[in-house]
């Protein structure tokens, strides 16, 4: 999605049956396009633009999310923080389609999600099942207590029409992902021979299931080895990937399903002894591991974790967060991590976005938000985190009042760049005062 043509206004198109689209125009906040276009070299997996989520109708209508815009880049963890009622869980629900948005656009890997009242196609449902998964706050309520763990974890896999083809593609893509990381680490990505190999390997028309094509690609890679590019005998890894593909081609869907279940259970610290047991036989931490394995078994492009640790005992919260970090590295996941516990968000996130009452207030790299936060609401969240080194006399710390800004039709906030990809919503005068410590 390009933002270059959206300068001063956003045009919202809502489809209507047998009628032209209803078009609504909304002004674009100053500085927003600079923020959204700040990282052109990164691939945008998720693009959220001017999003509203509204509950109820008429006099009971309530805007839970108000005109928020952000990107989630492929391979990153974006932490979304705020107190209860800030709209962060509603945002996550909108991204997976559980809460239909009333205004704006949600685009996931090039696919636009329908708004309230618009038709949901079978193609869209299949796309969402295969590419977007959610982990819920309370594992005991999200797991069916009447079926065993094998059935729970295989639930998503059973919804994939051609599981074997998807699994074989995963084997091939896992190899390519590992190779690209090695090439990047050794500064070989721009080598002419390497680019020729990658173009062939990533060609959408390349049939990696055909054994003749496999041998051709192996031969091409052997030429890279002969060029002394120090690829650590990666041709053996390519041969192993093709051997695995050829072995699994003859297996049944049941064999593949069981293999995927055992593999993902192992990734979260469980084994096959749990398969015949039921969810209520496990502790809260174990139930959440099962919920994670159910979501990750499909290898989704986007994983939405909605307060995944808030219902767990403090002693095991760190264990579950470590599982997320390990799974992100293993499966190259992109994660929206929703939480109110800044300690855990700081530990796992690449960037942090701060929300209050449905409005995005501050966003930037984790270190910037934690060390150089500026918005008064972010300050209130940071001071609410307990610390044995703190010399504050109150457990409450700084208390944020949304009425402090006094915004009017003439006095409106804008997105201001503080440096290092760190942006804040406020007026020039407010930001100057906050930098001076005047809150």
UniProtKB/TrEMBL annotation:
Gene Ontology BP annotations: peptide transport; transmembrane transport
Domain ABC transporter: 48-382
Record-annotated membrane-spanning stretches: none
Record flagged with keyword Transcription: no
Gene3D superfamilies reported in the protein's UniProt record: P-loop containing nucleotide triphosphate hydrolases (3.40.50.300)
InterPro entries per UniProt: AAA+_ATPase, ABC_transp_ATP-bind, ABC_transporter-like_ATP-bd, ABC_transporter-like_CS, Oligopep_ABC_C, P-loop_NTPase
Keyword line: ATP-binding, Nucleotide-binding, Transport
Molecular function per GO: ATP binding; ATP hydrolysis activity
UniProt KW Nucleotide-binding keyword: yes
Record-linked PROSITE patterns: ABC_TRANSPORTER_1, ABC_TRANSPORTER_2
Superkingdom of origin: Bacteria
PANTHER family per record: D,D-DIPEPTIDE TRANSPORT ATP-BINDING PROTEIN DDPF-RELATED, TRANSPORT ATP-BINDING PROTEIN
Family statement drawn from the similarity comment of this UniProt entry: Belongs to the ABC transporter superfamily.
Name of the protein in question: ABC transporter ATP-binding protein
Lineage: Bacteria, Bacillati, Mycoplasmatota, Mycoplasmoidales, Mycoplasmoidaceae
């Amino acid at each position: 999605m390009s933002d270059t043509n959206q300068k001063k206004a956003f045009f919202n198109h809502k489809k209507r049956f047998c009628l032209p689209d209803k078009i609504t125009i909304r002004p674009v906040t100053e500085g927003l396009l600079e923020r959204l276009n700040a990282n052109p070299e990164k691939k945008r997996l998720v693009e959220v633009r001017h999003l509203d989520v509204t509950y109820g109708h008429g006099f009971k209508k309530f805007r839970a999310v108000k005109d928020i815009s952000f990107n989630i880049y492929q391979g990153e963890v974006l932490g979304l923080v705020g107190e209860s009622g800030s709209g962060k869980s509603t945002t996550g629900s909108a991204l997976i389609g559980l809460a239909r948005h009333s205004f704006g656009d949600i685009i996931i890997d090039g696919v636009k999600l329908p708004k309230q009242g618009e038709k949901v196609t079978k193609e869209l449902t299949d796309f969402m099942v295969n590419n977007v998964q959610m982990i819920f706050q309370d594992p005991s309520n999200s797991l069916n207590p009447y079926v065993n763990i094998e059935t729970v974890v295989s639930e998503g896999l059973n919804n994939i029409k051609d599981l074997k083809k998807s699994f074989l593609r995963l084997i091939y893509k896992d190899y390519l992902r590992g190779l690209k990381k090695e090439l990047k680490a050794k500064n070989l990505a721009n080598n002419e021979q390497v680019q020729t190999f990658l173009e062939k390997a990533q060609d959408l028309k390349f049939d990696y299931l055909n054994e003749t094509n496999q041998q051709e690609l192996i031969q091409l890679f052997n030429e890279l080895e002969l060029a002394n590019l120090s690829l650590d005998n990666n041709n053996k890894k390519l041969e192993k990937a093709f051997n695995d593909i050829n072995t699994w081609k003859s297996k049944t869907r049941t064999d593949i399903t069981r293999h995927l279940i055992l593999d993902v259970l192992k990734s979260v610290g469980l084994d096959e002894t749990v398969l015949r047991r039921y969810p209520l036989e496990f502790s809260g931490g174990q139930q959440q591991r099962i919920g994670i394995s159910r979501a990750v078994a499909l290898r989704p492009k986007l994983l939405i974790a909605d307060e995944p640790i808030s219902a767990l005992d403090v002693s095991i919260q760190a264990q579950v967060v470590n599982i997320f970090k390990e799974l992100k590295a293993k499966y190259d996941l992109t994660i929206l991590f929703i939480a109110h516990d800044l300690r855990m968000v700081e530990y796992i996130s690449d960037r942090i976005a701060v929300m209050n009452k449905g409005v995005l207030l501050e966003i930037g790299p984790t270190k910037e938000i934690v060390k150089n936060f500026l918005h008064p609401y972010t300050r209130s969240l940071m001071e609410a985190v307990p610390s044995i080194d703190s010399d504050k006399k109150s457990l409450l710390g700084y208390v944020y009042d949304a009425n402090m800004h006094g915004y009017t039709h003439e006095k409106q906030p804008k997105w201001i760049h503080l440096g290092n990809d760190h942006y804040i919503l406020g007026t020039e005068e407010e930001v100057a005062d906050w930098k001076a410590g005047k809150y």
